[in-house]
Every structure is written in C-alpha cells, then in structure tokens.
Fold:
Amino acid sequence: MLNRYVNRLIMRYLYIKSAIIIFIIVSISGCVQSPEAPRLGTAEIISVPIPQHFAGVSVENRPIMYSILGNGSDITFIIGGIHGDEPAGPQLANHLADYLNQNQDILIGRKVVILTAANPDGLAYKTRVNANKVDINRNFPADNRINDPNYGPKGLSEPESHIIYTLIQQYNPARIVSIHQPYACIDYDGPAEALAQQMALYCDLPVEKVGALPGSLGSYAGLTLGIPIITFEMREHDSILNTQLLWQRYGKALLAAIIFPNPVQ
Ligand SMILES: [Zn+2]
Structure:
C-alpha cells in the first residue's frame, strides 16, 4: 500500500517535472523564433558606401569632399554648387554618385569625378558667393578675367576655386559638367556644342550659348584649357523637387554626358 502511494508520488513528480521542462523549452524556442527576430535566409542588402576624398577646406574651414566612380581612362568631372544659392545642383550630383555606384556597368572604361558641393559656405548661408563674398565662378585664371571685388583680388584667390583648379589639373577630364540654376538652359564653352546637343536629347532644357563670362569656370576650362564644358542650368523651382523627381527630369542628360558620344539606353 505504502509502496503504491510512493510510486504514485514519484510518477506525479516526474510528470510535473517533465511538464516544466517542456514549458521551458517551448518558451526559450519561442523567444528565439519570435516574429521580431531576424530570420535566417533573408540577407540584408548592404549598399557599399562611396569613398569620399578630401580636397581641402572652404574659407570657413568646411571640408570639401569629392568622390571617384570607376577607374577607366575616359574621365568626366561633375561639379555641383559653385553657387551656394542653387541647392538642386548638389542634390542631383549626390544622387548621380549613388546611381553610378549601383550601376557599375556604366563605368566600364570610364571614371567620373564628382564634387557635389563646391561652395559649402555659400550653401550653408544660401548665398551665391563664398564666405569672402567672392563669386567662385568669376575667380578662375581665364584669359578674360577682370579684377573686381566680387571676383576676388586675383585668379584663384579663393580656396574653393583653387580646389576645382587642382582637380582639373589632377584628373585632366575629357569633359566637365557644372550644374547650376536658374536659367533653364544648357550653356557650353570650348569644343562642347555636340556634347550640349547630346545632353539636350535627354531633358527639356534647350541649348543656349550664353557667352564667355569673365573669369568663369566655363571661360577657363573651355577657352583657356580647351576642355569641353557644360554649364547645366536647371530651373529655379527645381530646388523644391524631391531627389526622385529631380533625377527623372535631368538624370539621363547627365548620363548622356558621361557616356558621350554614346546614346543612353
Ligand atoms: Zn550658378
């Protein structure tokens, strides 16, 4: 009688112990496989960041950075934001870098140097000029440069223009595209008419020859150095567009410049 009672107690103990162990196992496995936990087999897509190269600093010591996409011998130099009150340029140039980074096939045989924000002080203050109140785009040592307080005491007096000058020397681009607002046209200097026409096929901006302005990057690169250069003038209200719309409107024109004279697919 006693033995049967003891056996029953032992059986009940084992039953309760088993139930507790099963409960603990289920609880633990439930935690590990909770819906919030990362699931195996769904690999996260990690975009490789674009290396940024230090080119120098602005008048107010803001770093000026640029990126290099591709390592081919056909080189395009893209510049955004020489004028700080034209923010759509840096926005578009930034997205171009991302696009090329994700579409490396475009870069076969090519290299694209992108200076997204050439005048970071002006961009910070929303001013055309730099922190010395000099128009960077009149500060180049072009043959037509004139001395004027707004153009700087001499050619390349400003660190921002000197950085662009140095990058041109360093990379010797086959073509340059400087992105501006708000004149809604594709202006060109030097041997760049065919390039301008090709870009115009892929956006709704007309080709317009504005003329060589004194000490401008267009005058310096296009006329003094003989490098085809485009002054890509977007519209004023492009500043309020989100990046996707900006890219839809002008992305293909930039790609056309990079792969010139080939057509954009
Ligand atoms: Zn401008």
Summary: Confidence is low (pLDDT under 50) at residues 18-45. Residues 53-258 form a domain with the Aminopeptidase fold (CATH 3.40.630.10). The pocket of zinc ion is lined by residues 83, 86, 180 (CB under 6 Å).
